[in-house]
Amino acid sequence: MPKVSDDRLAARRREILDGARHCFAEYGYDGATVKRIEESTGLSRGAIFHHYRDKEALFLALAREDAERMADVAAEQGLVQVMRDMLTRPQDFDWLGTRLEIARKLRTDNSFRAEWVSYSAEVEQATLSRLERGRQAGRLRDDVPTDVLLNYLDLVLDGLITRLATGQPTDDLHAVLDLVEESVRAHE
């Protein structure tokens, strides 16, 4: 039996993740049945679950990928820039619906919560590091602890995600993000 190359395996996993992301975003976690995931990916149950132990493992792989992508942007450009990118290019953020499902599962599923906490720590650490560098460079206010600034930005991010994922208007949100950015900056 011929061995499948690592590149081909990676391409298959990418194909599965892309199709599953669309399915979870459209139907939610519970509505993304195995049959719908098969239809969305164009692959059989066996092909999908050869790479992922079950639906939850597939969902967690998506969540981790999204957390890593967000951590990269947050570390390089800041969390407010992540939010600006969401407004400017919402089509690049097809994980917004998935993010709402993550929030729901965090509230209702203890085992999922335990796994997600380790994944989300990466985003939190990248953002905290950037905030600390900004503070040390004199760009961010120093009268509020860094972890409070992070929680503030996380709350704004969650609100933005909810607004985008539920299809609410976003016309005035660039001005809101200007206000958020101004509120964390140091004033001389």
Automatic annotation (TrEMBL):
Record InterPro entries: Homeodomain-like_sf, HTH-type_TetR-like_transc_reg, HTH_TetR, Tet_transcr_reg_TetR-rel_C_sf
Domain named HTH tetR-type: residues: 10-70
Subunit annotation: Homodimer.
UniProt DNA-binding region: 33-52
GO MF annotation list: DNA-binding transcription factor activity; transcription cis-regulatory region binding
Name of the protein: TetR family transcriptional regulator
Keywords: DNA-binding, Repressor, Transcription, Transcription regulation
PROSITE patterns in the cross-refs: HTH_TETR_2
Pfam families: TetR_N
PANTHER family tied to this protein: HTH-TYPE TRANSCRIPTIONAL REGULATOR RUTR (PTHR30055), HTH-TYPE TRANSCRIPTIONAL REPRESSOR RV1474C (PTHR30055:SF229)
Source species of the chain: Gordonia lacunae
Keyword Cell membrane found: no
